[in-house]
């Protein structure tokens, strides 16, 4: 967080609450969104590992395909996980890019 932003906010008489919500959080939003995106990607990479221990979900078809050596089914299930990851990544980046345009 650049100290100049906090100093400018204090110079304009911002209260600590307004300083947090109007200066600090908007300046930190790209880092916060990057953390959320990384968390989503990590959780989607864990679905296959979770399926190894018996959890249902997107990882179960991948494990089934690995057990039966069915390459096409494994590719299809892996592609589904990748598409979900891409869609969620784009949804998380959409509000950040809208704020920069205006």
Describe it for me?
With about 100 residues, the chain is mostly helical. The protein has one domain (about 5-100). It contains four helices and no strands. The chain has helices at about 5-10, 15-50, 60-70, 70-100. Helix 1 (about 5-10) runs antiparallel to helix 2 (about 15-50), helix 2 (about 15-50) runs parallel beside helix 3 (about 60-70) and helix 2 (about 15-50) runs antiparallel to helix 4 (about 70-100).
Q: Indicate the radius of gyration in whole angstroms.
A: 21 Å
Structural class: mainly alpha
The structural domain count equals 1
Give the N-to-C terminal Cα separation.
22 Å
Q: Give, in order, the helices and strands.
A: HHHH
Any low-confidence stretches, pLDDT <50, length ≥5?
none
What is the average per-residue confidence, as pLDDT, rounded to a whole number?
87
Shape designation: rod-shaped
Indicate the percent of residues in helices: over 70%
Main sheet specs: none
Task: Note the beta-strand portion.
Answer: under 5%
């Amino acid at each position: 967080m650049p100290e100049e932003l906090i100093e400018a906010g204090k110079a304009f008489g911002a209260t600590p609450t307004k300083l947090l919500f109007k200066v600090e959080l908007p300046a930190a939003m790209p880092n916060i969104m990057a953390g959320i995106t990384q968390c989503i990607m990590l959780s989607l990479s864990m679905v296959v590992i979770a399926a190894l221990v018996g959890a249902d979900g997107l990882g179960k078809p991948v494990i089934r395909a690995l057990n039966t050596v069915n390459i096409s089914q494994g590719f299809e299930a892996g592609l589904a996980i990748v598409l979900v990851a891409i869609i969620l990544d784009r949804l998380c980046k959409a509000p950040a890019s809208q704020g920069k345009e205006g």
